[in-house]
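Subject: Interface between my chains keeps coming out wrong

I've been trying for a while to get a sensible model of this assembly. When I model each chain on its own everything looks fine, but I need the whole thing in one frame so I can look at the contacts. Pasting all components below, labels as-is. Any help appreciated, I'm running out of ideas.
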Amino acid sequence: MKVVVCVKQIPDPADPGALDPESKTLKRDTKLILDESDSYGVEMALQLVDTAGEGSVHLVSMAPNNEVGGLRTALAMGAESATLVSDDALKGTDALGTAKVLAAAIARSEPDLVLAATESSDGYTGTVPEMVAELMGLPSVTFAKSIAIEGGTAKVQRQTEAGYDDVECPLPALVSVTAGVVEPRYPSFKGIMAAKSKPVDEVTCGDLGIDAGSVGWAGGGQEIVSIADAPAREAGEVIEDEGDAHERIVSFLEELKVL
Amino acid sequence: MSTQDQEIADQMIETIAKWVDKEVIPHASELEHADEFPQAMFDQMCEFGLFGATIPEEYGGLGLDVTTYARIVEELSRGWMSLSGILNTHKIAATMIGRYGTDEQREKFLPKMVDGSYRAAFSLSEPDSGSDAGALRCKAVQDGDEWIINGTKMWVTNGVRAHLVMLLARTPDDRVTCFVVEKEPGDSFEGISTSKKIHKLGYKGLETVEMSYVDHRVPDANMLGGAEGMGRGLRYALSALELGRINIASRAVGVGQAAFDAAMKYAQERETFGKPIFEHQAIQFKLAEMATKLQAARLMTYDAAARFDRGERIDLEAGMAKLFASEACFEICTDALRIHGGNGYTQEYDVERYFRDSPLMIIGEGTSEVQKMVIARKLHERHAIT
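Reply #2:
Try treating it as a single job with all components included. I did that and got this:
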């Protein structure tokens, strides 16, 4: 069984850098790391291949400056190989453009199953996996909390507000994985050493047959009009207990509609 | 080290650091107070491959250099110093077997030691022989193709859980010889028994015991280094302990970092006289001194490790790093506790654990006084007027 996992490499959230006032996007000129949201998909893919007793996990990523730092982390966890799409023409690519690039890169691997996070930790559009599925003509299941493969079928527990739905779909399919549903393994030191020699196929838009004019700033179907700093967190209200603190807390919670 | 090797080493350290932040620090004090062996942490250390970290690749280990190992020990100790203790006796044993063992001994033991399922302890100290290692009394008498061991050993860290003990004993030539003693984990095995569990101020969660040997038999083939190893045990042990000093210095840097981090955070959160205590000059000066000592300790430790990796002598530098880093750690931990005020004296804050752990680095593997003796002796050797 061949599983492809979409992996985003993002600026370290612990040191997030800044927004570029010119492009109005996040600066990505520092070292990028594996988006933690994607580590759940990588773990799930590795477990599925272990359970199947055969197959491999392949990674697909789109990142500037031929960045492979985050890919190496996922390779150290146990993925076998990776495809990195890196091309100056991709600067400013929006969610649909990203989906076009990923779909073209994924298609080269002819996977049985494609996994992705439900959303990235820096962009948060939460739309790319479903657009990839549409572009590839694959069935798409979202918010998976567990996946089992039986024959040519994916049996997915799909998380909902009330619990979960049991969903089945034929393979190949694309499934987005909810963060926190599995415990991603730490790479072993042997895995870290081995990751350096695992193949990373670096390709450009041209290699994928994608017209550079259809992606990046040129092909963007959306425009970022302005950016502003998030408002500073306001000081909370301190309630001194003068015998009525409980009533005031209850009415505060009622105002928030949590009671 | 090549750029690629450096990147690999950095990724290993980042991985350990992430694990320490997420899985070690939140649970360490609770386990430490209960003096409970950290099984889940131990299991993950095995998964990482830490027990084979410095064992050569030809025996299934990772063959990491001493600098990388020192950084690993520092990170583990930043979370909980006892974790590096679980590892250290194993590393000393593997180093001794790798360096001085016969081919047969290396092939027999090292492949078993890489994954943590077969653990090792080191046993030099005795009730009346600590810093004065030459005074040890434990005896080994030959009987055919076996040696009969009798004596009592102190401060045997990991002694109960170990499958192998590097035992230093006095042979009939009145010299000290090292035996690779194989045993089953547990309180007793054949002529070996755990005569006392030592209750410590800190460094909890892993056992440190007194072990007695009564007519315990060890095959001749387990004399470290074979026939050539007869009478060379102390030399082998002291050579391994030279690396052990880098290990202790690295632990001191890790615990010192944890104490500094805690103090820096607390100083910005705690307010007195209407402002965070960090804004009081008395606290600023303390933190400035703590950070400076920590930086110097770290650089001395890395320097000694790098010298070793370059094949240079470190008899002087390792002792200096151990002496300085352990004393700096103790001072940093004391100041961190002072900065925490009354809270520092409670079990609500990790800083009391750092404070209790820090003296171990001053005493373990050669006290500060012994380090000064070693340093002075080496200075004389290097600068003697002829």
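Reply #3:
Confirming on my end. Residues 2-219 of chain A form a domain with the Rossmann fold fold (CATH 3.40.50.620).
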